TrEMBL record:
Record flagged with keyword Transport: yes
The keyword Iron-sulfur is assigned to this record: no
Lineage: Eukaryota, Metazoa, Chordata, Craniata, Vertebrata
Organism encoding this protein: Crypturellus undulatus
PROSITE patterns on file: START
Domain START, residue spans: 16-212
Protein name (database record): STAR5 protein
Key words of the record: Lipid transport, Lipid-binding, Transport
Length: 212
């Protein structure tokens, strides 16, 4: 049976909107100059959902240029946790099936991972942009021997205009990932807050040097 990728994409965008609108139950776990990271138990799997919230010193358009999920996009250049990003199939103009690979990290305790997701982008009336994803199976992406297949549950990034501050953007991210394999819980628990902090500091460096 054909997967209803478009239907799934709609559900994912709705879930992200719910996470954004629901301030309850988040526990702060890490704070840097760029981001406040918090978590709560996931409703989707046995792990946690993490939220990152920070301001970037750039316009929403410039920030979006760095996070938007497109082939040949800037994400692989600045995000040290994305080794490769491929669009396997375009479903509609704003829904695609993508494969992301990650390098080995944490002193090689976490081996390379691959993720296959349906990815949706959405623009809101106030200028906010959303990129959201969740895991899927796809014929063009059979599991590969040299990667552990991880699963992203509804996750994504909002680039939100800051009223009256055209050169600032609130970046609100939600990470909800089963890394797969056999990792000690302590490794997983320290990996995500550190990775999210790195995502924000690397994004900040990238947008500061970027001139559109």
């Amino acid at each position: 049976a054909a997967m209803d990728y478009a239907g799934l994409a709609g559900l994912v965008a709705t879930k992200l909107e719910l996470y954004r609108g629901d301030p309850g139950g988040w526990r702060s776990c890490r704070r840097t100059d760029e981001v406040t990271v918090s978590w709560r138990p996931s409703d989707e799997f046995a792990g946690k959902i993490y939220r990152g919230d920070g301001l970037m010193p750039a316009s929403p358009a410039d920030v979006w240029e760095h996070v938007k999920p497109v082939a040949g996009g800037l994400r692989v250049e600045w995000d040290e946790n994305v080794k490769d990003f491929e669009v396997m199939e375009m479903i509609t103009e704003n829904i695609s099936i993508c494969r992301t690979t990650t390098p080995s990290v944490f002193r090689k305790i976490i081996s390379p991972r691959e993720f296959v997701d349906v990815v949706v982008t959405k623009q809101y009336e106030d200028g906010t942009m959303l990129s959201a994803a969740t895991h899927v199976e796809h014929a063009l992406c059979p599991p590969q021997a040299n990667f552990v297949r991880g699963l992203n549950y509804p996750c994504g990034s909002f680039c939100i205009p800051v009223p009256g501050e055209s050169n600032k953007t609130q970046v609100l991210t939600f990470f909800q990932t089963d890394l797969g394999g056999y990792l000690p819980q302590t490794v997983v628990e320290s990996f995500f807050p550190a990775t999210i902090a790195g995502f924000y500091s690397n994004l900040k460096k990238a947008v500061e040097t970027f001139k559109s």
